[in-house]
Amino acid sequence: MDISTIIGLVGGFALVAWGILSQGNLQAFIDFPSLAIVLGGTIGALFVQYPMSQVSKLPKITKHAFRNESWSPNELITLMVDFAQKARREGLLALEEEAAQVDDEFLKKGVQLVVDGTDPELVRNILEVELNFLEERHGVGQGMYYMMGATAPGFGMIGTLIGLIQMLGQLDKPETVGPAMAVALITTFYGSLLSNLIFNPMAGKLALRSAEEILIKEVIIEGILSIQAGENPRIVEEKLKAFLSPSNRELQEAESSRSVRNVVGEGV
């Protein structure tokens, strides 16, 4: 569970509500017809731009913004180094049983290709093609949220224009102008709030999740090919550490040092 997404949404709405209550009445900002115009128009435009098969996946896609299901690059590098050590001791066939215990279909597929004796270049091509299609699928989910983020303020303005037209039709009743103007502006408020607090941030979070998953899979590809080439586990680790940020490299080096000490201790 990614607590930051929940904190952002709950905290954002709470602070907006507090700002409203500190200056006035929250009830004045609640208008369901205005909300229907913004949400209805945004969702309608979403269906116009995307087919039903993709829109129906939006709830499932949204879950990725609240859950961090992928492992960390450091954990993966440690696993790949362990695989490299086992492959050097027992051969590539020994990796099949090890990979079966890992809950990652991409890794299992890569290991199976290596175990089956597939040419290294073909292994890379197969995995990279799958990675490219994964990136395209992720881009669809991000695009839907970016589209809603760009559309919601426009429908907020449309709702405001509707309210102004209705207000101008009642100029013979001056006492209704003020309340009618307030209701007209609420749709713009709804459009801006939904766009800047939900739709665009969710698109950004999904893009971040996609980048993290792609990085993991790039590490898997490079690690599997290095293991297939029979490279020394230490060299495998150094190659994969190139994918890490400087701070994560320090964590990986510390983890490697602890592993070495544990092995030495067990040997003693």
What is shown here, in short?
The protein has helices at residues 3-23, 32-49, 52-55, 58-63, 73-90, 95-100, 105-115, 120-168, 177-228, 233-241, 246-267. The chain is mainly alpha-helical.
Q: Runs with pLDDT <50, length 5+?
A: 260-268
Question: Based on CA inertia axes, which overall geometry fits?
Answer: elongated
How far apart the termini lie comes to: 41 Å
> How are helices and strands ordered from N to C?
HHHHHHHHHHH
Count up the helices. Answer: 11
Using only C-alpha atoms, the radius of gyration works out to 27 Å
Helices and strands: which structural class? mainly alpha
- What is the total tally of β strands? 0
Q: How many independent structural domains?
A: 1
Q: Helicity range of the residues? A: over 70%
Largest sheet: none
SSE blueprint:
Elements: H1 3-23, H2 32-49, H3 52-55, H4 58-63, H5 73-90, H6 95-100, H7 105-115, H8 120-168, H9 177-228, H10 233-241, H11 246-267
Helix pairs in contact: 1-9, 2-8, 2-9, 5-9, 5-10, 5-11, 7-9, 8-9, 9-10
